[in-house]
Structure formats: structure tokens, C-alpha cells
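One-letter codes give the sequence; the fold follows as C-alpha cells. An example follows:
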Amino acid sequence: MGTVPPRDEQQPWDGVGLPPAARSRIARAADSHVAGSLLSVPEAAALAAVGFTPVGEVMGCMVEHIGWRGVGCGYGMGYGTGYGSRTVTSGSGSRWAGLAPLMDAYYRGWDTALSRLLQEAVALGADGVVGIRLSQEHLGGDNREFLALGTAVRGAGPRATTPFTTDLSGTDTSKLLHAGWVPTGIAIGISAAVRHDDYSTYQQRQTWSNTQIDGYTDLVNAARHDARTQFERRARAHGGEAVLVSGMRLKIWEQEPSDGHTDHVAQATIIGTAATSFRRTASAPTNSLTILPLDRTKETRR
């Protein structure tokens, strides 16, 4: 006979807060005398040097159905005139185009995953979560899983009001703290841009010479620029005075809104850790070993 699951796992989940399986996992971790960790030995040692010890692995995830993925005609959105058109981004305010709602869906996925990871950390009495790994999986159709996985840590001093989150390794987090900076949260900037393949773009694509495709260069630059703007805005919302970029991604694809009419869409994502200073020092400890002389003659003379 199988074990009867806890009562909360028997009840339907309304999608709010932590899933029942996550609550049960945290309850087991809280009752256990063994703290799980995703840290390497050097990372754990580096964090111990600044007063942090791991209290458990934490995870947050969300499976989201992104049903609306349509993007309006790039020609109409870009006010194409004659043989030219312009690039429109999701941050430009053209919500009717489908770009902003699509990016809102991605933000909701990442924000929910990180929020649930943070809820698990709070339940374990953690002061922060380090080494967070963010991943996205296609689960078939228009369904995607947004996953955040990290190690919750606790400091030796008073409890933090709100635990910090960072995708920095334990070693880099220790160096950051030694340098007088503390991570405040993970910032994510996402943007999409669309541009109609106008006459000029078509001609540059068909040439036999090596030449810049002006429209596509403008497209990817606009997407990256808007993503950086969103990234900075969200980093400031975390109380960051500075931000450490850990990853920049770009993907571009073609769509055909109508026969003989193509657009290109670019999506840029920037991920990093916002940080704020609590004291100033000359520099971070970046060297683990003293430089030793290899010239035996000089060593002997000393």
C-alpha cells in the first residue's frame, strides 16, 4: 500500500503561491538536519569566509502557455513609405502590434519563477540565494517552462528583511562582498523588434558582394538597445547602484504576414545582478596565490 500524501497535496491548487509539491519539499528540508547545496567546494569555502552557509537548494518554476504570438505587419507598424521602413520595438508603445504582450508573457514567466524561488528561500530562513541558474524549456506547442534554481544561504548576523538573489557564483559573490558591494536582485531585460523587409533590404540580401544589410543591422541594434533600457530600469527597481551583466542573448526569425511580404523579428535578452555598495575598499580580492619568482638565481640572492 502506498503512502498517503499530505493533505495539502490532495487539495486542488489554484495556481497562487507555491505548488503543493514545493511546499512539501520545503517542509522536509526545514525538518532535515542536512542542508542541500548546488555549490562547489571552492564556492562554499569562499562564502564561509564572508559568513554565509548554505541552508538548502531552492527552485521556482512556471509552465506558461503563450497563446498570442502574432506580430503585426512590420510595414504598417513601421510606417513604411516608398522603398523604406523603420524598426518598431516592444518598448515603443505600439501594444497593438503584439510585441509588448509577447514580452509581457516572458516577463511573467521569469518573474513568477524567481518569486517562487524567493518564497522557498524565505521559508528556509535564508538571507539570499546565490548561483541561480535560469533556463527555459519548450514543452511542446506554445507551452514553455521557466525555471530558476539556486542555493539558499544564511548569514551569521541579523536576518535580512528580503533575501537577495544573484546569478553570480559563490566565489564571485564573496569577492563582491569583500569589495564592499552586496547583490540586491537579478535583473532581466527583454525586448523584441520587428522590421518589414523593404526594397533596400531585399536588394542587399540578393547581392553577390559582401555588404551590410542596413535593415537587419538596425533591427538587432534596436532590439538590444531597448533590452538594455528595460534591463537598467528593472535593475534600479531592485535598488541597484550598479549591475553586472552575466548573459546577452539574441534570436531572429522571419515571418510572412501575407503572400510575397516578409518581416523579420529580433528578440534580445539581457540577464545580470544588480548590486549596491555598503562600504568602499581599494579593490576586490582577485588573486588566490602570491606570485612566486621562477628565477632560481634571484631567489638564492634573496
Residues 2 and 10 are 14 Å apart (CA to CA).
